[in-house]
Amino acid sequence: MNTEEKIIKWSREYSMNHYKIISILLMANDGLDFNDFVDIISKLKISDDPNGAIRSLMTDAGNNYGKIFEKTANKIKIIPECLKIITENWYK
Predict the structure, then answer these.
(1) What are phi and psi of 75, to 5 degrees?
(2) What are the tens digits of pLDDT across the range 26-73?
(3) Using 50, 70 and 90 to split pLDDT, how confident is the model at 92?
(4) Domain map (residue ranges) of the chain
(5) Cα–Cα dist 88/11, whole Å
(6) What mean pLDDT comes out for the span 64-87?
(7) Are 11 and 89 in contact (CB under 8 A)?
(8) Are 24 and 40 in contact (CB under 8 A)?
(9) Would you call 10 exposed, middle or buried from its count of C-beta atoms within 10 A (0-12, 13-18, 19+)?
(10) Burial, 60: exposed, middle or buried (Cβ in 10 Å; 0-12, 13-18, 19+)?
């Protein structure tokens, strides 16, 4: 399954961690500081390993979710190509 197919599939999985994590970053228009993002996920008890959950959305390697996020100067943002797919499919 490629990244676009994963995003479309995830857009219907409201209770899943990856949906919740992507939704948080989607609401942060200009991205989030990595450590702040970890803290938010931890406080909301979305994942037992917030750091790992975020990192699994930053790579296509192995069993990770797929490269949806990118990190620039300690700020996490949704990759523009993925953002387009997300905005077309999320919350429908």
Answers:
(1) -110, 130
(2) 999 889 999 999 999 999 999 999 999 999 999 887 666 778 999 999
(3) low
(4) 3-89
(5) 10
(6) 90
(7) yes
(8) yes
(9) buried
(10) exposed
Six-digit token pair at 39?
A: 């803290």
* Whole-structure pTM value: 0.87
For residue 31, give the 3-state DSSP assignment: coil
Which residue shows structure tokens 């949704």?
Answer: 78
Three-state secondary structure string covering 55-74? HCCCCCCCCCCCCCEEEECC
User: How far is 39 from 25, CA to CA, in rounded Å?
Assistant: 13
Six-digit token string for 17: 């961690």
